[in-house]
Design goal:
Elements: E1 7-18, E2 21-32, E3 36-40, H1 47-54, E4 62-67, E5 70-71, H2 79-84, E6 87-90, H3 102-112, H4 117-130, H5 146-158, E7 164-168, H6 176-191, E8 195-199, H7 203-209, E9 212-217, E10 220-225
Parallel strand pairs: 3-8, 3-9, 6-7, 7-8
Antiparallel strand pairs: 1-2, 1-4, 4-5, 9-10
Helix pairs in contact: 3-4, 3-5
Bound molecules: adenosine-5'-triphosphate and magnesium ion (MG).
Magnesium ion binds near residues 47, 48 and 168.
């Protein structure tokens, strides 16, 4: 297996089974550094499963996965958190911490990384403003609308300046205007050099961006179009 440094992510024959059922079936795919791509396909096709594997949040049954040239199966316990720090993730169900304010949810990554308070306040303030939710900084997540929570999840994913963003249905709870704000934030972030993967059903979102579209059906790549 050769390691190609142009790739941010590479999967070789990856299969993931739940019980007897294959959520991903022998997937070979690569995303290069700095690429923006959509992953689409019907409900149950394996989009979230793929993103979870790339975030190193689940084991897989067969195959190999390289993330930033590291074989994730061969990473020790200390290597995994280091690699994860380079990946920002927006989960389909947000996974915000309910006992912490919006500000603290977003700031947590920076606090863990040992950044000073001034830096954190500036960075988090900027991100919340860019999404129009600065007025919610002190609120608890459960007091926010679904769309606002989605924006908090995105701010949290971006705040550590990760090299890779994995966004699972990042506009799923948003109206059209808010979806386009979020999409523009992701495109801006991509323009600064990040690799961005967006799992979505949203055909309008995909059509508006003119980017690579990988379609999964029954856990396999059914089509892969529009890439550079
Ligand atoms: N934790 C789990 N336990 C058992 N089966 C699972 C689990 N997670 C996913 N699956 C199954 O794996 C398959 C792929 O699920 P996945 O969540 O990846 O689909 P998806 O493409 O993200 O769908 P959606 O568009 O609804 O979000 C589905 O058949 C699902 O039922
Ligand atoms: Mg999903």
């Amino acid at each position: 297996m050769s390691e190609n440094s142009k790739d941010a992510i590479r999967l070789f024959g990856v299969t993931k089974t739940y019980g007897g059922q294959k959520a991903l079936n022998n997937v070979d795919i690569a995303f290069y550094r700095g690429e923006f791509a959509f992953v689409t396909g019907p409900s149950g096709a394996g989009k979230s499963t793929l993103l979870r594997l790339l975030y190193l949040a689940a084991d897989f049954t067969q195959g190999e996965i390289l993330v930033l040239n590291r074989n994730v199966k061969r990473m020790g316990r200390s290597g995994l958190p280091m690699l994860r720090r380079k990946i920002g993730v927006v989960f389909q169900d947000f996974k915000l911490i309910s006992s912490m304010s919006v500000f603290d949810n977003v700031a947590l990554v920076l606090e863990v990384a040992g950044k000073d308070r001034k830096f954190i306040a500036k960075k988090v303030g900027h991100l919340l403003r860019s999404m129009g939710i600065e007025g919610k900084a002190n609120a608890l997540p459960q007091s926010l609308s679904g769309g606002e929570q989605q924006k908090v999840a995105l701010a949290r994913a971006l705040c550590g300046d990760p090299e890779i963003i994995l966004a699972d249905e990042p506009t799923g709870s948003l109206d059209e205007d808010a979806a386009s704000v979020v999409m523009n934030i992701l495109l801006d972030y991509h323009a600064r050099g990040a690799t961005v993967l967006v799992a979505t059903h949203d055909k309008n979102l995909i059509a508006s961006a003119q980017k690579r579209v990988v379609t999964l059906v029954n856990g396999a790549v059914a089509s892969d179009t529009g890439g550079p």
